[in-house]
Amino acid sequence: FNTDHAVVVFSAGPSIVGGSCRVLVESQEAAEGADAMELSQGLPEPLLCQCRAYLASCRDLDVEFGEAVAQIAETEFVTARAEAAERAKTARASGGSAEEVTTDDFHRWLDLARLVAASYGAPEVSSEHWAAAMAMENARATRAKAAAAANAPPSPGAMPPPKPVSPSTVSEPPAAGAPRAIADVMEE
């Protein structure tokens, strides 16, 4: 039996479920006014049926790569792999590390380009579909790097640790209702 179990895992942190692609979603301000009211009530049934039909037609579409786009994809993969190897070489020389471009990355790019073409109802990936897919992939990679940098521990000497407050610097107890140190609360 042909099966296709599409699974999407949403997680605020690292997931215990493995996956081949991690997409960080940028949060946006909540919709206000009439838009929020419409969203809370759901989509009208006719529009919902149209959306379902569109998704079903996209899912069933067999999308192929033409010779020209396949050549573009191959050239970009070879170039990206060479650039990543050069970055890795430079990073190793300075004691760091850099990610490599693998065949798994290339297959993800091909799948993404097929999905972009399918979303337009196209039976073949065009150079525009390829460019759109690569723009999406670059945006995803940029967000992933930014998130990794934000969650990385500070490098030594980047920011001095906070100075400890000695008991001799506190002249009087805090006023009622004022925030207290965790150690003060635990001693009680």
TrEMBL record:
Residues 144-188 are annotated as: Disordered. Signal peptide: none annotated. GO terms for molecular function: chromatin binding. It holds the Pfam family MCM_bind. The keyword rRNA processing does not apply. Transmembrane segments: none annotated. Residues 166-175 have a biased composition (Low complexity). GO terms for biological process: DNA-templated DNA replication. This is Uncharacterized protein. It comes from Florenciella parvula.
